[in-house]
């Protein structure tokens, strides 16, 4: 096969086939999501994206540290709009490899909020690689969010919305199962959800018992989601987590969102943001 270029790759149908240039003509490869993901990773196939809005001079993002109930120090980021007391705090849970700056620097969440004219604060916490659930080490980044960050943001108890990506999307779903007071909506983008401990990413859970205790697709988890705050799940159709995202959407009555064009990357997540922000506004 010759060298692939953007001009020589044609994608057709609803993610069913991919047509690539071959020495003797055109070859059609079935089961394309893995193929499309490889082409995307190689820079051959573009995914969706949305430019971060240019909203001019807005307040700067602040950073600091707090001590959480688990006794550990966590770095936080916070953006507050000009003009007073925000009506809602949008708490963001970053993806694996991210940090407290991820929602602001990689995605520009606060600029999307400002462009929508919403008087919301945006905040985040550095969850390191703890996968946003209590760990055998004693670390509990999600507990730090609910037990320290949220009270610091809104001492009167909210309202809050939670938005997470990948590992953070899983955290948003888990938090929706066990929501603290004041959480009015939860949004999970490409949530990193697995169906078994053996199939999970290395390090995501301490052991099989830990997986079972925090399995958001188990019967108990799904039942809790049905009684929790409104949930939205968005995922790219070429994302490895599209299948489990479909299961979440089917399991939770009234769940919003869906499976859209896209991959497991920041561009796809930016493309989701305008609809997610509008949904949070209307779901309050």
Quickly count the helices.
9
CATH architecture term of the largest domain: 3-Layer(aba) Sandwich
Largest sheet: 8 strands, mixed
The helix fraction, in percent, is 25-40%
| Whole-number count of domains | 2
What assembly state would you assign to the polypeptide chains in this entry?
single chain
Tally of extended strands?
11
Q: What series of H and E elements makes up the topology?
A: EEEHEEEHHEHEHEHHEHEH
Mean pLDDT: 88
Radius of gyration: 20 Å
By CATH, the topology of the largest domain is Rossmann fold
Net shape:
globular
Amino- and carboxy-terminal Cα gap? 53 Å
- The helix/strand class is alpha/beta
Strand content: 15-25%
Structural topology:
Layout: E1 9-12, E2 17-22, E3 25-30, H1 32-41, E4 62-67, E5 73-79, E6 88-93, H2 102-105, H3 109-115, E7 120-125, H4 141-153, E8 160-165, H5 167-177, E9 183-189, H6 208-213, H7 219-226, E10 231-236, H8 242-251, E11 256-260, H9 266-283
Parallel strand pairs: 6-7, 6-8, 8-9, 9-10, 10-11
Antiparallel strand pairs: 1-2, 2-3, 4-5, 5-7
Helix pairs in contact: 5-7
């Amino acid at each position: 096969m010759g060298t692939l270029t953007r001009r020589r790759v044609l994608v057709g149908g609803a993610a069913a086939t991919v047509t690539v240039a071959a020495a003797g003509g055109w070859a059609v490869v079935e089961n394309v999501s893995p193929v499309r993901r490889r082409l995307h990773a190689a820079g051959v196939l573009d995914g969706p994206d949305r430019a971060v809005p240019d909203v001019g001079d807005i307040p700067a993002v602040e950073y600091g540290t707090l001590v959480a109930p688990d006794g550990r120090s966590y770095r936080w980021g916070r953006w507050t709009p000009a003009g007073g007391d925000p009506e809602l705090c949008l708490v963001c849970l970053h993806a694996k490899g991210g940090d407290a700056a991820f929602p602001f620097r990689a995605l520009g969440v606060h600029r999307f909020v400002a462009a929508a004219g919403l008087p919301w604060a945006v905040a985040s916490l550095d969850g390191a690689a703890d996968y946003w659930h209590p760990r055998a080490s004693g670390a509990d980044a999600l507990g730090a969010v609910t037990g320290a960050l949220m009270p610091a943001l809104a001492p009167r108890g909210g309202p809050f919305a939670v938005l997470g990506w990948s590992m953070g999307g899983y955290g948003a779903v888990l938090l929706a199962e066990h929501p603290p007071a004041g959480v009015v909506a939860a949004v999970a983008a490409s949530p990193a959800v697995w169906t078994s401990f053996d199939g999970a990413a290395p390090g995501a859970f301490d052991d099989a018992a830990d997986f079972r205790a925090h399995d958001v697709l188990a019967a108990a988890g799904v039942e809790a989601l049905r009684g929790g705050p409104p949930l939205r799940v968005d995922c790219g159709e070429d994302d490895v987590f599209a299948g489990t995202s479909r299961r979440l959407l089917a399991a939770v009555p009234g769940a919003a969102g869906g499976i859209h064009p896209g991959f497991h990357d920041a561009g796809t997540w930016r493309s989701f943001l305008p609809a997610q922000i509008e949904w949070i506004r209307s779901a309050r």
